[in-house]
Amino acid sequence: MVRVIKRYDMSRGPEKRSRWGCLNCRKRRKKCDEAQPACQICIDRHSECIYPDWSMVKYGRTRERVREYQDAGNLNNSMSHRPVLLPAQPSGTETKFVYHFSNIVAHLISFSFPQPDISNPFLLHILPRTSCSTQVQRAVEAVAAAHLYHLGAETQNRATYLHSQALTLLATELSSPRIDPAARINLLASSLLLIYYEIVLGNSANNAWCHLQGAKVFLEYQDEAAESSEIQFFRKIFQYFNVMLALSLGRQPLVVNGVPGPEIPDRIDTVFGCAGRLWPLMHRLADLIGRIRLGQNGISEARSLIQSLEAWSIESSPGPSTDAYMEAMLQIARAYKFCGILMLRMTLSSSLDSASDQELLEMQDEEVYRSAFDSVLRVCVLSTPMSTLTWPLYIVGRLAGSTSDRTVVMHIFSQFLEKHHMKVVDGARMAVWAYWGERMSQRQNWKSLPPVLLG
User: Fold this and answer.
1) Zn(2)-C6 fungal-type domain spans which residues (predicted)?
2) What is the mean pLDDT of residues 358-377?
3) Domain identity same for 325 and 202
4) 237 is in which domain, residue-wise?
5) Do 405 and 350 share a structural domain?
6) Triad 365, 366, 369: Cα angle to 5°
């Protein structure tokens, strides 16, 4: 007892621990004593004790970063023709969320290349708006807080509170009798950010669909002939989630101003990755699946779309990126192609009566499945951003039949989750796991499956 008293000086009072300590404790979700140079847990585990550098999270640094992207963005609207006043100095917590979004989250959800002459579009078009729009700032903070919650560095209540504030500000702005063009763009940006909030937390796909419907209304007010690069970027985010949420819910994609599908001339895009003519085909796929689930007969159209997907290809080309980034884009695009073919062929299989036709289709499915599996695995090996890999990984996982394939799929899910820390990935993984349990030795009907949020 004497030794214990000597070792722990009772005059120091109770030992203080927090969840804002070293990175090892935060990763393990342990309370850290924040001792310097190493905490007691790291000493006991013989681990290197590293503390996050919060010196960068200062209002001045955030202010400089906002100004940098305001200059680079050159916003083509009324906001850019008048001085942009930064809001009153925010609290340290608020600045931390904006910092986390701009330095971590934005790079996880974009295909921007890691080169100094190419700006991340989320920073170029969204970050400057946090300085002039409280609702955009709250939406950014909500997304960042949700991501920090999955990192074990923030409470879920904080993310929920910021999300509630963002919704309140959005509703207040919508209640205004007249909304000017600049405010309408802020509403569009906020609606799209709230979809990302649902993605990070893995919430209901129906909630995300409601925000998508709101974004559709704001997009319909935009003049496509005179669209700025900012609006074009927001439109691409909308079209991406339009297809992904439609596939998640088994619905037809939304139509903006009577235009059914997106026009994406870019071969390499910071939202879609390698797009070319692939993304309009994915839009057709989502629309066809939605109509078939409503009872329409789309067999002939499905065969035509399969031929279009099989004919689609993109060759490696020199781009402003490292080889790993370009290869990841190519493989994700191919994974979408092959998974789209698999979905259509499974739709066709239910209409075939001949046993020989069924056997031939299953052989073709196995070949396409192997191609999709290989592309998904290559993306995992490259260790680049995987934000748009959820849907193809989900499709490949459901079709994995062997123990070895399922082990690899679970490993990819684990790496994906560790890299991105988004609940939507874990939701897809749990759905695949549940499907394996119900599937047993025969395929389950796709129409009977509950909706899974993908994105």
Assistant:
1) 21-51
2) 80
3) no
4) 56-263
5) yes
6) 85
Q: Which of 265, 266, 285 is nearest to 342 (CA)?
A: 285
Q: Each residue of 267-294: pLDDT tens digit? A: 666 666 666 678 889 999 999 999 988 8
Q: Are residues 287 and 352 in the same domain?
A: yes
What confidence tens digit (pLDDT) does each residue in 12-71 have?
445 567 766 787 787 777 888 888 878 888 888 877 787 765 544 443 444 444 454 444
Give the end of a domain, one of 24, 52, 80.
Answer: 52
151: Cα separation from own chain's centroid = 16
Domain holding 22: CATH number? 4.10.240.10
Smallest Cα–Cα separation from 130: which of 158, 155, 147, 106? 106
199 and 286 both lie in a single domain: no
Q: Is the pTM of this model over 0.70?
A: yes
